[in-house]
Amino acid sequence: MDIQNRIRTMMNPKSVAIVGASKTIGKWGFTFVNHLSQGGYKGPIYPVNPSGGSIIGLKVYKHINEIPAPVDLAFILLPPQMVSNAIAECGKKNIPACIVISAGFKELGTNGKQLEDELVLTAGEADMAILGPNCGGISSPYPMSLYCMMQPTFPLPGNIAILSQSGNIAGSIQHILWKQDFGISRCICLGNQSQLKAEDFLEYFITDEQTHVVIAYLESISDGKRFRDVSARLTRIKPFILVKGGQTEKGISAAKSHTGAIAGSGAIFEGMCRQLGIILADDVEDMLDTTAALISQPLPENNRVGIVANGGGWGVLAADACVKAGLNVVDLPPDTLQALDQRLPAWWNRQNPVDLVAGMSRGAFFKAAEILCKCDIIDGLIVLGFGYNNAIVSALSSHTDTEEQNFSQYINDALYSDERGMNFLLDLIQTYKKPVLLASEFIVGADNDKNEAVLALRKKNILIYLSPRKPAEVLARLAAYKHYLKSLDAG
Amino acid sequence: MKIIDEAIKRGTKTLSEYESKQLLSKYGIPVTAEKTVTTEDDAIAAASQIGYPVVLKGSGAEISHKTELDLIALNLKNESDVRQAYQKLTSNPKAKVNEVLVQQMVKGDRELVVGLNRDPQFGPCVMFGLGGIFTEILEDVTFRVAPLTRWDAMDAMDDIRGKKILDAFRGKPPVDREVLADILIAVGKIGLDHDQIDEIDINPLKVLNGKPIAVDALVVLGNGR
């Protein structure tokens, strides 16, 4: 069995069977059929249950061998003691891969472990690839629109691959990405990893063309050497962001030296990630904030940052956050200052952060961003307060026009100004190949307020962060990854 | 390696400080000039050979925390200092001293730590950080899995909160990062070469005129897992 080929089939199944499908709403056997159907799966769905009949309009087959056509992938949702037998039956039908959703195996201790060993043995005899058991399912939107997970989340096809040792977290990540308009390539819940393991999927992501960024939630590493090997090859070509749950299991009391005593804290894992170019995030939120930038922005050459603020305090906080995150808030060189002098009023603050005191024309705001992008000693930008004009409009739109006060003209200009600003920022990123990260309070309530500027930017996968601390930390992570990649080039 | 084999044959769980440094020295790690003696006269001879001031350390089987046991006499400037210290160490009621280590006194201007540990998943790992008493108090250390590339070693130096300790300060030159990198890489190599070594502590690794030098060292042996 070529494992990589089997995984490719698993991600691109032309037909799917759900063994242990149920008519009862609320049972997993129903939920998985329902989600697969709701997700618009493009191939035939074959629910299997001895009682036959139909589920949400799909014919139910009484036995796997009654399915009239070949099956590429089977999901198994049977009681644990029936799973091995079902796998053997799937083998007889030449189904190349099964995903075992059922729980009640190794995670429960000795008895479960026996069942799991039996399952692996049966799969081996049937030459079958197995994901799970105790698995939350998978999504693979492209090309078959396959969404077959515990949670009802349906992000569009995209380029983020999710790998998770927790089905719960995988579903949450999918939900968050979905609601922020980010697409995914694959979502894999690893379950107990009885046969297919995290490393097999990391290997797959290296060559999977749909995947541009890999994010993972892992609690334990089963094969340290292979994990290091495959991660090093992955991070050379695709960013790999990881959240590690749980600490390493080192008996701290057994250590005789200071080194041994300190080593139990997860510090080894952190160091190893730096050696492998893995971006280690503190939690899921940090991981996704970083992912958002990696999927839509170029990497900064270095850690020097320019900040554009639309007034006062946010600029100060942004500068503080950048310094704390290890970024270099550079002093602006004379030619950059002069260029800004020409665009800004005489009383501008003449330093980084460039503080465009409230009330400035929006054109100047975006022009200032461009001037900083042009500056050779700036590697990335943080721009604050985007979406302001849309917000102003909401306070004007209830008025009616009079001869003196042409409200509708002003409103149109303001909205157009934000739209132009958005396109301008997108152009800056393209033209200067520098990341431009945004923070703005207008993301809060943007959906309700119909802040079109903010929503449109989100559709372009440019995530606006709430406080400047976020883009500062994200930019620092991007710079560290670039630093790692450069070290590879340097040999 | 002979030092390790002999220690295992003796049934000891740690190498003595002297043996530990012999091992480090074989991997090019700078260590203090030192000699093991068992008589007062030999101590005097060793001290004049090494050059004053010197340090005397009492050692014996299974003695690993010398400071706590009052087994260290620092800054001995002449023959009479050495004689007094020798007598005091060998009559210490808290520990049975079999031999005395006469050692070059390195004042140094800062203390670092370098260590080795074996992770069950990732194998030998090198630790680097702030040394001396700060190792325990601040735990400002970082780990790298062996083997270390030069970039890994350099990156580790930038990865501690107190990294400024490596820069020039108060008229003292910066730490020679190239030499420090050599040391980190070498400790990783020791871990890869010798399965029988479970842990290593080089603490303190002092800095003298910018050059790191191992002033105390402990090698802990295991069962070669």
Q: What is the C-alpha radius of gyration of chain B, as a whole number of Å?
A: 18 Å
Percentage of residues assigned to helices of chain B: 25-40%
Strand numbers in spatial order across the main sheet of chain A: 9-8-11-10-12-13-14
Mean pLDDT of chain A: 91
Secondary-structure-based class of chain A equals alpha/beta
Through-space gap between termini of chain A: 36 Å
Can you count the helices of chain A? 18
Low-confidence stretches of chain A: none
Q: How many beta-strand elements of chain B?
A: 11
Strand content of chain B: 25-35%
How much beta of chain A, percentage-wise?
A: 15-25%
**How far is the N terminus from the C terminus of chain B?**
17 Å
Structural commentary:
The complex is a heterodimer of chains A (491) and B (225). By secondary structure, chain A is of the alpha/beta class. In chain A, 44% of the residues lie in helices and 16% in strands. Chain A contains 18 helices and 20 strands. Chain A has a 7-stranded mixed β-sheet with strand order 9-8-11-10-12-13-14, with helices on both faces. In chain A, strands 15, 16, 17, 18, 19 and 20 form a 6-stranded parallel β-sheet that branches. Chain A has a 5-stranded parallel β-sheet with strand order 2-1-5-6-7, with helices on both faces. In chain A, helix 2 links the parallel strand 1 and strand 2 (45-48). In chain A, 51% of the residues are buried. The mean pLDDT of chain A is 91. Chain B is of the alpha+beta class. Helices cover 32% and strands 29% of the residues of chain B. In chain B, strands 1, 6, 7, 8, 9, 10 and 11 form a 7-stranded antiparallel β-sheet that branches. In chain B, strand 9 and strand 10 form a beta hairpin. In chain B, helix 3 (40-50) crosses helix 4 and helix 6 packs across helix 7. The longest helix of chain B has 17 residues, at 177-193. The relative contact order of chain B is 0.18. At the A-B interface, helix 7, helix 8 and helix 9 of A face strand 6, strand 7, strand 8, helix 6 and strand 9 of B.
